[in-house]
Write a structure and sequence with these properties.
The chain is of the alpha/beta class. The chain contains 13 helices and 18 strands.
């Protein structure tokens, strides 16, 4: 049965779902609040079972051609002396290292999914879903910001970790869906200089501060500031005016050392700046009636896991697969979607908070200890051996086979 489906959000998860739904004959509309395709953003990657999904989409080679040529990871001190390094696993066997074989800029991946769907999916930019009503057991009415409205057989909230769709379907008594890790992050682009390399470079400073540098083009590099600070007051900084946000990051990192001054100067000229609190999204359900959540809106695993994009792509495949496998019974499809995907999400959200604390030392002694441990582990080539012989499938969870999507 052909369904009329509204997807809210045109990031990675929404268009990935639209790809499968359009392929199987459904009428798909994607609504996006931005006036145009949101094809900017930081460097992301695909790992584990997500690589298998894009392979089934027939887009693996296109994505590979758009990848960033990142050679690996290195930890440096204030003089740029390398204290530990891990090469990317390009053997085609085992598990991806800290640098995936499929590193790609977020905007490039969004464009790949958009180009694969723009001829079969209707995209509406510059509009939002102000509210929606469940008309009955089979239809939902969406009211748009331009005053129009329409009915759909299914509404999909793929609108990120701050999802308004999620807020609308959860009961008022629902506990806070955010597991707050006490970590905050900002990134922006700076002009690339001669000493920038295609290696993911990390530097640690006291006070729970970490600085990353990655280079994705001959002219630009990316600066990332991460701050471990459990103060609940910091959550508000991400809703402040951009000038206030930039002043905050400059003030907290000004004495951090290494290339900090250069990165802070870049704040004044960048047109690609973003800041966020690092959280996990955990809810007891991902659907209500004919409304369902997808990607970060349903189960954001947190940036520090490196599995946000991967889990979104996998979730899109499972949701589309269950809809196709249960024609005429959308409610059963949504129940199966959650039952099938939940074990994988539980696995990737199971983080050891003591490891996170160790990764963000507050003192020079803590940094020295981390550098020593990392140097010994890398000298013994333990990460290379683990990645070479470990399974690429996170937690051993297998991607379901949906013959209906072939």
């Amino acid at each position: 049965m052909s369904l009329k489906i509204l997807i809210v959000g045109s990031g990675c998860a929404g268009p990935a779902l639209a790809f499968w739904l359009a392929r199987t004959g459904h009428q798909v509309v994607v609504v996006e609040r931005s006036p145009s395709l949101r094809d900017k953003g930081a460097q992301i990657d695909l790992r584990g079972q997500g690589i298998e999904v894009v392979k089934r989409m027939g887009l693996l080679d296109i994505i590979r051609n758009n990848c960033v040529p990142e050679s690996g990871f290195q930890l440096v001190d204030s003089t740029s002396t390398i204290r530990a390094s891990i090469k990317a696993n390009t053997s085609g066997k085992g598990r991806q290292s800290l640098t995936s074989e499929f590193e790609i800029m977020r905007g490039d991946l969004v464009r790949v999914f958009y180009d694969a769907t723009k001829d079969s999916v209707k995209y509406m930019f510059g509009k939002t879903v102000d509210r929606f009503d469940q008309l009955n057991e089979e239809q939902v009415m969406a009211y748009f910001s331009d005053g129009t409205s329409d009915t759909f057989d299914l509404l999909v909230g793929a609108d990120g970790q701050g999802s308004r769709i999620r807020k609308a379907i959860l009961p008022p008594s629902t506990p806070d869906p955010y597991l707050r890790l006490g970590i905050h992050a900002a990134y922006w682009f700076v002009p690339r200089i001669e000493t920038d390399t295609n290696t993911f470079t990390a530097y640690l400073a006291p006070g729970g501060r970490a600085i990353f540098r990655r280079s994705h083009s001959p002219t630009e590099s990316q600066a990332y500031f991460f701050l471990k600070d459990p103060s609940p007051d910091l959550a508000s900084i991400h809703r402040a005016p951009v000038t206030t946000q930039k002043e905050f990051w400059a003030q907290r990192f000004r004495d951090a050392g290494w290339e900090t001054d250069r990165f802070i100067e870049g704040l004044d000229t960048t047109d690609n700046f973003y800041t966020q609190e690092i959280v996990q999204v955990r809810t007891n359900t991902w659907h209500k009636g004919r409304v369902v959540l997808l990607g970060d809106a349903a189960h954001c695993p947190a940036v520090v896991t490196g599995l946000g994009t991967t889990s979104s792509v996998i979730g899109a495949y499972v949701l589309a697969g269950e809809i196709s496998r249960n024609p005429g019974d959308v409610n059963q499809a949504l129940r199966n979607y959650e039952a099938t995907l939940r074990p994988y999400i539980d696995e990737i959200q199971n983080m050891n908070t003591s490891v996170i604390a160790f990764a963000f030392p507050t003192t020079w002694w803590g940094i020295a200890l981390l550098q020593f441990v990392a140097s010994v582990v890398c000298f013994l080539r333990i990460p290379d051996l683990v990645n070479r012989f470990a399974s690429e499938n996170t937690g051993g969870w297998q991607v379901p086979e949906y013959e209906e999507l072939k």
